[in-house]
Amino acid sequence: LAKTTQPISMDSYEGQEVNITCSHNNIATNDYITWYQQFPSQGPRFIIQGYKTKVTNEVASLFIPADRKSSTLSLPRVSLSDTAVYYCLVTGYNTNAGKSTFGDGTTLTVKP
Amino acid sequence: DAGITQSPRYKITETGRQVTLMCHQTWSHSYMFWYRQDLGHGLRLIYYSAAADITDKGEVPDGYVVSRSKTENFPLTLESATRSQTSVYFCASSDSVGDAKNIQYFGAGTRLSVL
What CATH number corresponds to the domain at position A35? Predict the structure, then answer.
């Protein structure tokens, strides 16, 4: 299954837009890109999922270029409560659905 | 209650003892997963299950045993606990029905200390 690479950490200030990019060069045709958020002492929780182009929900946008070798999670106007670890996961479909490699994620720190 | 629950939330044991961590989900998801998360690190997959009676190894399966006799339960057993297995253990479940392409839903975790 495709391995992902993310920056280890990022800093931002309240009200700014934050973009976190994930590389997944070996993504397969049937794979989806899924992002999770994790707060200390909690399990990760789903943020957004996409296959190609752009996906937007109430909390984030996900941009995926045509070659799908990378993806960018965009968090608009972050607040202190967005301080967390963000994981990019290439989610296998059908026969590969069970193999998941989370990696170490990106620690986002939002400052006042 | 609906969702995914793990028990116990905290466990202290001694080296060499057998420990079983429980995971129960009420969604009838076909996939279930066990991860471990060491302090300051990401999640590593221990085992996963695609359906009842179907399990497979993840990245770090050594020292662990799983079973899945029923769809809703996926217990993880440490046969002879070692200090290196001190970690936080997360269970998750997922399915591919409709638009949800194996989005994983996680339990609250079990914090295990092996002394």
Answer: 2.60.40.10
For A45, the closest of B48, B101, B106 (CB atoms) is B106
The DSSP code sequence of chain A is: ----B--SEEEEETT--EEEEEE-TT--TT-EEEEEEE-TTS--EEEEEESSEEEE-SS-EEEE-TT-SEEEEEESS--GGG-EEEEEEEE--GGGTT----BS-EEEEEE-
- From chain B, pick out residues whose CB is under 8 angstroms from the CB of A45: 106
Domains of chain B: 4-114 (2.60.40.10)
pLDDT tens for each residue of B35-93:
999 998 889 999 999 899 999 999 899 999 999 999 999 999 999 999 999 999 999 99
Choose among B92, B102, B107: nearest Cβ to A97.
Answer: B102
Q: How far is A12 from chain B (nearest CA, A)?
A: 20
